[in-house]
Amino acid sequence: MAMDRPRHQLMRGLISRAFTPRVIAQLAGRIGELTTELLDSSAEEYKLELVADLAYPLPVIVIAELLGIPTEDRPMFKVWVDSMLSNDNVDPTDETAVEEGADTLRKVVDYLREHAVQRRLSPRRDLLSDLVAAEIDGHRLDDREIASFAAILFIAGHMTTTALLGNSIRCLDANPEAQEQLRKYPEKLPTAIEEVLRYESPFAKTSRVTPVEVELAGQLIPPKQMIEVWFGSANRDERQFVDADEFQIDRSPNHHLGLGKGIHFCLGAPLARLETKIALEIMLQRYSSIRVDYSHPIEPHPEPGFNGVTALHLDVEPAA
After folding, report:
1. pLDDT band at 9 (very low <50, low <70, confident <90, very high)
2. Is it the case that residue 219 has pLDDT exceeding 90?
3. What is the pTM (predicted TM-score) of this model?
4. Which of the residue ranges 17-26, 30-39, 70-79 has the most confident prediction, judged by mean pLDDT?
5. What are the phi and psi torsion angles at 58 (to 5°)?
6. Cα(first)–Cα(last) distance of the chain, in Å?
């Protein structure tokens, strides 16, 4: 994520040899099973807390199974991820808090590196084994590179789907006619999800550094400057989108920046889209009505660069 060409191109090429569209497409059946199981295990028939009941556990389980992480270790990952997220917005001058976040990240990477070492000795049918075997022109990923990518996939990958699913339900609650359209015509879900990615992008911004002096909109930016790029603003740009502040499930074209752009375009985008599409399709079939329960406060994520909620209570009506 912090690399430029040519190193970035090599690393991404190696990872793409293992994390292929075919691998992701093969997860569809399992995603459907997990969605149904999680909804079945919900405590109440007419109530859901979307994040705890579905939007958080679904991508975590999918990625854990994809990587080959043992079932008994998943609670440990939740503790680590929650710890890192709680440290996302700390004062950078608070050395103790910064070190706590770095220490947690080291634990995640060290854990995954141990599994990468195991896969070299005894390959399995999982993504970690595929990453160990990936090769381009004699180049292979070392154990720490594999662990670092797996950590990024686990942390950022589940956050993207959790936010995208929650934001989708919020958009459909605010636009009940769109919810009914998708219930009748589920084939419209892919374009509707693209509109959610534009209208309520999971990540509000990203950071970039200028390698050389750059002029942007008449403003001269010196080299080695940190730039905050706001997706949320770009995706509501009326010069690019007609009726930019309206949610339209059939918007086309829709060249949004919800998952980035260029060489750092989100590598896990196909997985986030697939998980969200399957989960929404099952929910819309299962429930004749899905509404946000505003008697419970909507809890936005504390990290300002992340556009999602930590809890979303719903009233649902099971379909006949």
Report:
1. confident
2. yes
3. 0.90
4. 30-39
5. -60, -60
6. 47
Q: Put residue 91 in one of left, alpha, beta given phi > 0 → left and psi -120 to 50 → alpha.
A: beta
Q: How far apart are CA 86 and CA 66, in angstroms?
A: 26
pLDDT above 70: residue 34: yes
3-state helix, strand, coil in the chain (%, to 5): 55, 15, 30
Going by C-alpha positions, the residue among 311, 313, 307 that lies closest to residue 160 is 307
Cα–Cα distances in Å, from 176 out to 45, 283, 311? 21, 14, 21
Contact assessment for residue 232 and residue 205, using Cβ atoms and an 8 Å cutoff: yes
Among residues 212, 247, 208, 80, the alpha carbon closest in space to that of 151 is found at: 80
Token code pair at residue 106: 């080291």
Whole-number CA gyration radius for the chain:
20
Beta bridge partners of 135: 140
14-23, 46-55, 143-152, 190-199: least confidently modelled range: 14-23
Q: Which residues contact 21 (CB under 8 A, 6 or more apart)?
A: 270
* Residues with Cβ within 8 Å of residue 103, at least 6 apart in sequence: none
CB atoms within 10 A of CB 57: 19
Region 22-42: what's the mean pLDDT? 94
H helices present in the chain, as ranges: 7-18, 21-25, 28-40, 50, 57-67, 74-86, 95-121, 127-133, 143-174, 176-184, 189-199, 231-234, 269-286
Taking only the tens place, the pLDDT of each residue in 81-110 is 767 666 555 566 667 766 777 788 888 889
CA separation for the pair 147, 116 (Å, rounded):
7
Cβ burial 270-294 (10 Å sphere, 16+ → b, else e)? bbbbbbbbbbbbbbbebbeebbbee
